[in-house]
Every structure is written in structure tokens, then in C-alpha cells.
């Protein structure tokens, strides 16, 4: 019989004993008197609790459950079997309620591990075979049917695929992926069957990293919870002292028993773990992985935020920033022609150009007679139009720049951008500017962090001052540190941490030392289980910045609810102890009152599973 089943059995025995004793007491019929029935129903709970306390003491743990053992034993010795059985029901019921609350709080975390991919469809010369995910090797071609989970991380081989990434990133709507895009294990094929090539083994893929983080989240205790455990060492002697004083002053041992009963068990021990597990679970539901309650508690107290630039505040690639078109030319038509030509290119910008065209739902044509001049540009024909794209020298040779293009050339002269000049026939038709663009949600994310109490914002980057200044000018930042190597990043984090609890947000391998040095390291882990994800305390699975602010809000709310539950619960218990010491509460009434307090604090702690905003779950 497992521990949860034993607790339920003890509760049933105590409840049946209470009911049977009340029936005998009411009718006067039965082979045993009511007191004997209540005593017999209490003894299994006493024995099980004594064994549990001895086992915990043997491994160096001591809990407040000892008060329950003392109160039940004292009730039996003082010939108060009804009080004893009510305390037994209260204690057994509290443990069952705690099991329920923990199970409720851990449900979202368990759902993540339960849906781990288990099989894969591997292509071979003879067809397709179904194998265990552990047998998938890097480079294997896999078939993913509609409704199946992606077994490992990989690269999409087909033209497109529709994926439900909600279990990994928290994004509610399916997303489209194109050929060559990175795919992550644990996501669901929400469209037609497609092919992919495995890029990682199962135990090194994204979902395996998620499962490991979830396991850590369920075992690592927060300092707040460890403090609660230590508090239990002082609660037993304090309770015995108050009950002894009540007995000494009144001369009535029943008053001492009442004091013991209302102090059993302690809301401090029940509320804190449930609240923190609930907070970790709520974060996981939004694609935010907290590596244990300790990370969540530390995040709640952060006051300084440090951000890496590339890939964190910015998208981290060469994205289309602006299209300048010649008079009479449409930007969408230019982009359609350029993207059609770039289908035949292997240049680093080709994917960005084609992706920008697909985002605008432009239909691409097949290019003809394409010739690529390495390092300069390429020429070809699209829709019977001669088109060339590349550097200014490649596109224009010695021709002067038209007046309409001069303003852009001056504006981007010293900026860290790439400029692609496009000619149709013999004339310049447009100029495309590419650079590391600011994330669309960066403004909102930083504003939300300010409202959450983050008082200092720092951008920390290895890029040069010009690139850093261009991005920082668009954001509400307090400090900019540029040209930083990994050692400089660590030194900056340590300096900030010396003045206030500090979080570091980054995504690259070179951010890992700084993430580890911060009070809380947050990794933007959307691109896979990188070294930065391993070094971080919190991993944001979505490729967005706003979940960072959401993580802070969840952490703050969780800690506030845990503290609220503890303070209110202990205050109510203290008032009840004083009333019991003054003879205002009987042992039976005290047991029922304390049970009500315990139920209230646990239900309050479970609020961490919700969003905390009006009208939202």
C-alpha cells in the first residue's frame, strides 16, 4: 500500500469510528461503549504517525506533525476519546487534503512528462518502420503523420508544415514552418504528413530537456520552504509551553489539551509547498520552465534586469527592416521578384528574403538563367523580367545613385546593416535594408517589467557601440554596456548583483557564464536546449520576450500568496490557542476549528494555479 492510500485508509477508519461511536452514544446499543470505539479508531492513526515521525527523525528531519501525536496521545490519557478521534480525523484529513492539493498543483507538470514522444517512423530503403525514439540517430529521415508528436529535434524537409507548439511554448495557435526550419520534439503535427531529418538524439532534444527541468522543479526546495521546515523545530516547544501555562494557571489539564489541538497541524508547513508547486505549474502551462521552487522565489525578489542584445532584445538575424522603392514601383511586387530570384541562391540573406515574402503571402515564381557572383550578387530572369540583386557596386557599377535613394543611403551610412540593391532591366528599382531588428514585443515586455517593480534595466552586449546605441535608442533602458566579452558580462552581472537581486536574460552560448552568475538566469530557449538553457534557472520556450515579464509576475504572485497563507493561518491559530488557554474552546471544537483553518490556507495556496487577473482562468 502506497503512502497516499494509507492516508486515505486511516481517514476512513477514523471517520467510521467517529460515526460508530456517535451511534452507540446516541442509542445506547452495542457491544462496546462509544469511548472504546473512538479509542480504537484513533490508535491506527497514532501508530502510523509515530512510525512516520521516527522514520523522519532517523534521516534528520523533524516536522510539526509531532504536535498531532502529542495531542492525540494526551486526549487518550486524559480520557477524552472523542477529542482524540476528531484530532485523528483532522490530521488524516489534512494529509489527504495535502495530497490532493499537491496532485492538483503538479497536474500540469505531470501532463508534460506523460506526453513525451515514445515512437518514431523512420524511413528506409524498404519503406517506413516504427521504432522507439531512443533508436533514432542523427541524420535519420523520419515521417510524421497528422496528429503525431515530433519524436526528436530536426529539420523540415518538405515545403511546409503546420505545428501545434502549445505544449512546448504556450502558444495557443498552430504555426507554419517552411523547408529548412528547425523543428522541436514534443510539438504536434496539426496538418498533413511531412518528412523531417533528425538533428539530435532523443535524450538531447528539446522535450527531453523539458522533462529533466520538470523533474528538478518537483524536488528542489525554495529557501522559503526550508525556512518553514526549520520553524517547525520551534513550534512544538512553544505549543507545549503555552499549554503548560494554561494548565498551571487553570489547574485544568483539558485546557492544555485544547491548546495542543488547535495548534495541530501548522499552516506554515501545508501552505508553502503547495503554493510554490502551484506557481511552477502555472508557469509551465505558459511555456516558462522554472528549475524548482528556489528559482521561482528568487525571481520574485529581483529588482534589476540585464538583457543580452542579439537574440534577446532583438530577433538575432538579418531581418528585413525597410524596402525603398523607386517612384511608381510597389514594394510587394519588388519583394515578390527578389524572393523568386533568391530561391536559386545559397546566400545567408536568401532565407530571410523568402520568409519575408511568405509572411506577406506573396506567390513566388520560378527563376530562370540565374548566375550567382559569389560575394557580390546574382542575376536572372523572373516573369520575363531581367533582375539583378546585390551590392551597390554590383547593381549600379559606376552609375550615380538616383535622388530617391540618397536619403536612405545617408540614413544607414554608419549603421550595422546589409543593403541589397535591386535593378530591373538597366534601372535601380529598389533598395532592401536588412539588420538585427528589435523584437516586436520588446517595448511591452520592458514596460511590464517596470510595472512589476524592476527598477533598473541594463543592456549587455558584445556588439560595438553603434549597434548597441541603435537598439537602445528605441527602448527604455538605464545602462548600456557594449563590446563585452563573456568575462566582461560576468563582471557586469556580479557588480549589479552586489547592489540588488539581479536577473540576466540571454540566449547564446556565450551568455551561459553570465546566466549562471546572476541571482536568476533566464534563457530564451526557443532555439533548442543550448548551453544557456542548461546554465539558466528559468527557460522561456517561446521565441518572445513578454513571457519574461510574465514569469516575474507569476513568481511575485506565488510568493505573496504563500506568505499570505502562512501569516493568516498562523495568526488564526495563535488566536485560537489564546482562546483555548482561556477556556473558551473545548478540545473537540478546537480540532474542528483548526481543520477549517488548514482547509482555508490550502485552498488559498492553490490560487497560484490561476492567472490572478479578472476574467481569466
Automatic annotation (TrEMBL):
Q: What class of enzyme is it?
A: translocase
- Subcellular localization(s) per the UniProt record: Cell membrane; Membrane
**Principal subcellular localisation of the protein:** membrane
Q: Which PANTHER family match?
A: CADMIUM/ZINC-TRANSPORTING ATPASE HMA2-RELATED (PTHR48085), CADMIUM_ZINC-TRANSPORTING ATPASE HMA4-RELATED (PTHR48085:SF5)
Q: Which NCBIfam families match?
A: ATPase-IB_hvy, ATPase_P-type
Protein source organism: Mesorhizobium qingshengii
* Alphabetized Pfam families for the sequence: E1-E2_ATPase, Hydrolase
The parts of the chain that form a coiled coil are none
Q: Which residues form the P-type ATPase A domain?
A: 116-214
Protein's UniProt name? P-type Zn(2+) transporter
User: Catalytic activity, per the record?
Assistant: Zn(2+)(in) + ATP + H2O = Zn(2+)(out) + ADP + phosphate + H(+)
Instruction: List the keywords (alphabetical).
Output: ATP-binding, Cell membrane, Membrane, Metal-binding, Nucleotide-binding, Translocase, Transmembrane, Transmembrane helix
Which parts of the chain span the membrane according to its record?
36-54, 231-250, 256-280, 561-582
Signal peptide location: none
Question: What Enzyme Commission number does this protein have?
Answer: 7.2.2.12
PROSITE patterns, per the entry: ATPASE_E1_E2
Which superkingdom, per the lineage? Answer: Bacteria
- Family under the similarity heading: Belongs to the cation transport ATPase (P-type) (TC 3.A.3) family. Type IB subfamily.
